[in-house]
Amino acid sequence: MDVVGGVAHAELLDDQVAVVDGLPGVLAMTDGPLPTVLGSAEFLRASAAQPGFRLLK
Fold it and tell me: Is residue 56 pLDDT above 80, yes or no?
């Protein structure tokens, strides 16, 4: 993402919204039954550094 650009799209669990809201690189967030976040490479690095980080496909 740092080289070619782009935006990450991640679906969040309800308990992740408060944590993600304070991370750097968050471009936008949505509310609703399936909250989502759009973020930069900086956001991906910051979220991966959080305790309990899980990447699900």
Answer: no
